[in-house]
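User:
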Amino acid sequence: MAENITEIQEKIKQIIVDELGVDEEQVTENARF
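Assistant: Predicted structure:
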């Protein structure tokens, strides 16, 4: 099953929030590590 880009971005965003303890509002397309 192919996932669309939005679904993949949401999964990645959730991983960053969960694993790095970052606020979800801080995770944007323009944010950098």
